[in-house]
Amino acid sequence: MSKLGNLGARLHRGEISYDFVGKRKIWYGVSILITITAILGLAVRGLNMGIEFQGGAVFTTPTGMSTSVAQAEEYAKEASGHEAIVQKLGNGSLRIQIAGIDTDKSDQIKQTLAKDLNLNSEKLAADLVGPSWGEQIASKAWQGLGIFMVLVVIYLAIAFEWRMALAALVALIHDITITTGIYALVGFEVTPGTVIGLLTILGYSLYDTVVVFDSLKEQTKDITKQTRFTYSDIANQSINGTLVRSINTTVVALLPVAGLLFIGGGFLGAGTLNDISLSLFVGLAAGAYSSIFIATPLVADLKEREPAMRALRKRVLAKRAQAAAGEDLVEAPAGDEPGDAAPAVVGPRNQPASRTRGRGRPSGKRR
Asked: For residue 339, is it left (φ>0), alpha (ψ between -120 and 50) or beta?
């Protein structure tokens, strides 16, 4: 931990750094590749919408069932003619959900399932879910997402500038696209928990981005009054100065989410935890990536197009070229290495006074 803290302090002071902005074309290429993969996953496989969005029935058995999940899935498929999702709950009961069936058919499926599971039909709880409820959730989610995007752009444009607002918007779209694309590729069910997770990651995605933007704004107040750094140089310093902080906050946020996803969802088979934890896990990781590799380099790209920033870049590069040329003319002092000859002296020099001058005069003094 002390080594990590020392690394963070050195990055913050600018003693060491990594050229994130200078290699931005690599990061853009990686992001474009990931985004295209996510879009293809959405187009080819599509999202596995949950029963809340499609409508259907959910059957819950009593506790202590000895029937396996695979066997229950087979019974449900034979009884309904549809694919069924079966989850074993913590108390030993089974949750069987079948999408796309109406009320009349659900009663018939209930009777058949109860017979196959050796249960009294009264002990098999059945709940019907209409697709209109899921449609309302999706509609409200899209409305909330749109309002959130507009408010974020307005706030960032006022607090910082429109270029930073545009870069943050691109980063948000990048994170949401990747998260939904991974959902399509993995095949996890999209439930209201998924929608909640997607809306939650928007704030996390912006957090690291705003931290870097705030540092960048602070360091570029009087940027045109100096000739040491270009805008891209200072943007790179801002990323490096907040890098360890971004990594720490992201890791701390990912650890409990990973526990929900891999322990709660993987070992315990809790479907609801899978729904929300996968969106949070992917969204947090994508948000940390986009704040470092997408948002700030994009701001630097946009700012470098300004006439004032282009003029500053010319002055900085000219000064660096002049300094490099001056260093090439500097010669090593004599005696640094054995056998080195003394360098020649260029230009006029003062001759040393003769030791014999002034001798023979009455006073004996030199003039």
From this structure: left
217-219-223 Cα angle (round to 5): 100
Task: Give me the domains of the chain, ranges plus CATH numbers.
Answer: 12-49+133-315 (1.20.1640.10), 56-129 (3.30.70.3400)
Pinpoint the alpha helices (H) of the chain.
Answer: 2-13, 24-44, 51-54, 69-80, 103-116, 131-159, 162-186, 192-219, 231-258, 271-290, 296-303, 307-329
Place of tokens 């003094």: 365
- Among candidates 295, 304, 309, which has minimal Cα distance to 28? 295
Does 231 score more than 80 pLDDT? yes
The Cα-based distances of 50 to 75, 130, 174 in angstroms read 20, 12, 24
Cβ-count burial 198-235 (b if 16+ within 10 Å, e if not): bbebbebbbbbbbbbbebbeebbeebeeeeebbbbbbb
pTM reported for the whole predicted model: 0.73
Note the pLDDT tens digit of each residue in 34-66.
999 999 988 988 888 877 777 788 888 888 777
Note whether 276 and 256 are within 8 A (CB). no
Token pair belonging to 246:
């971004």
Instruction: Please count the other Cβ atoms lying within 10 Å of the Cβ belonging to residue 12.
Output: 16
Separation between Cα atoms, residue 95 and residue 125, nearest integer Å:
10
Q: Are 198 and 179 in contact (CB under 8 A)?
A: yes
- Mapped onto helix, strand or coil, the DSSP state of residue 354 is coil
Q: Are 121 and 114 in contact (CB under 8 A)?
A: yes
Quote the CA–CA distance of 353 and 367 in Å, as a whole number. Answer: 10
Cα–Cα distance for residue pair 140/142, rounded to 1 Å: 5
Q: Which residues contact 147 (CB under 8 A, 6 or more apart)?
A: none
The tokens for 124 are 């098999």
